């Protein structure tokens, strides 16, 4: 069953918060200068209607489409931590990854670009690199990733990609083998945490290329 949506019309035949697209469409169809947006919670829609439409133009509304109760349940990120992320131009394509200080976004490490990689491989390598970095620093900081797949691969100690090895991406797979060996040979107490993008926005290590 599709989740209930709520539609805010700031400028239309009738203004307000509507509970169906058909009703909303009647207010904005062929209406010059129509201003509207959908939300997944009534509370978020009602709050948005009280504000100005221009505050929402081009804005990623994922963080505001959660109710206050949902946001409270998720909580806030631990700023005393590091965050990792990867970026890939194509699938497969040129891939790189990095780690940053969550609070300041200061870059701590970066690798790549690697030829013919994938985002999942990059996220996996970023996490392992981050674990190694923290262990070397004798740091007890937790590490954030927004990739459930990468987190599961790290916990299993193996990069479970279906990508085939080629002459172009062999250097990348050499990195993968080194990462898997590190996981096999090392123990760590670092907490690996999931970055809640819907509540907190993009992870601080994001390359900003979306």
From TrEMBL:
One of its GO terms (cellular component) is cytoplasm. Endonuclease that specifically degrades the RNA of RNA-DNA hybrids. It is an enzyme of class 3 (hydrolase). SUPFAM superfamilies: L9 N-domain-like, Ribonuclease H-like. This is Ribonuclease H. It is found in: Cytoplasm. Its cofactor is Mg(2+); Mn(2+). One of its GO terms (molecular function) is RNA-DNA hybrid ribonuclease activity. Keywords: Cytoplasm, Endonuclease, Hydrolase, Magnesium, Manganese, Metal-binding, Nuclease. Mg(2+) 2 binds at residues 123, 146. Gene3D superfamilies: Ribonuclease H-like superfamily/Ribonuclease H (3.30.420.10), Ribonuclease H1, N-terminal domain (3.40.970.10).
């Amino acid at each position: 069953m599709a989740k209930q949506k709520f539609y805010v019309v700031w400028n239309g035949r009738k203004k307000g918060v509507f509970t169906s697209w058909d009703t909303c469409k009647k207010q904005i169809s062929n209406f010059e200068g129509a201003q509207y947006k959908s939300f997944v919670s009534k509370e978020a829609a009602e709050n948005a209607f009280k504000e100005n439409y221009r505050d929402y133009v081009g804005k990623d509304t994922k963080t505001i489409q959660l109710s206050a109760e949902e946001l409270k349940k998720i909580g806030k990120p631990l700023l005393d931590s590091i965050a990792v992320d990867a970026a890939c131009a194509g699938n497969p394509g040129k891939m790189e990854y990095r780690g940053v200080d969550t609070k300041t976004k200061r870059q701590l490490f970066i690798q790549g670009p690697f030829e013919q990689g994938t985002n999942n491989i990059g996220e996996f390598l970023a996490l392992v690199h981050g674990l190694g970095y923290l262990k070397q620093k004798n740091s007890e900081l937790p590490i954030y990733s927004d990739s459930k797949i990468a987190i599961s691969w790290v916990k299993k100690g193996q990069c479970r990609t279906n990508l085939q090895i080629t002459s172009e991406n062999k250097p990348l797979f050499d990195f993968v083998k080194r990462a898997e060996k590190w996981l096999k040979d090392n123990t760590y107490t670092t907490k690996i945490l999931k970055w809640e993008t819907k509540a907190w926005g993009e992870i601080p290590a994001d390359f900003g290329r979306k």
